[in-house]
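Q: What would this chain look like folded?
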Amino acid sequence: MLLSHAFGLFTHPEDEWVSIKKEHEHPTRLYVAYVVVLAAIAPICAYISTAHFGWSIGSERLIKLTEISALQMSVLTYLAMLVGVFALGYAINWMAKTYGAKEEHVPSNGIALAAYSCTPLFLAGFALLYPVPWFNAVVFLAAACYGAWLMYDGLPIVMGIEKERAVMYGGALLTVALVILVSTRVGSVILWNLGLGPVFVSG
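A: My prediction, written as structure tokens:
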């Protein structure tokens, strides 16, 4: 089962990458059975916490989003995550030949690397049930660092390249990931200006 890899990536990542490489799952099945499921964790938890729990900064009053606004934000976040993973997977395959990958002809490898490397970020979504900004920031920062390490660790195994090339390949992919992140932020600003911004209420 694809979801079993999520646990293995935290306990024995190198063995898990070898197993993932051997599977050669079809990209569509991998996307639907893994990314679509795990990417839903953060939006669902964010909806629950922002619409029902609320948050406060310092001694300020409790702040919540209206249920419609929270649902709207969660759906948009979910779609952005799905697009982001796909874009990163596409970039991995697109750059493969440049960095001498021997497995660039296998279309599932890019999506597999992107999807499984994002596992810590997917699971970090549970932290949103405790809507304290500094706590969420620390959890997601730690998850992003571990996700970056997972990608670096998995590149030589899944794509069949030398460990030395994985440093440059991984650096290029992290740059792509940052561009994707900035693009989502810009997209958020545009959508908010179009009237799709958050609607706050006092708790």
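Residues 4-202 form one domain.
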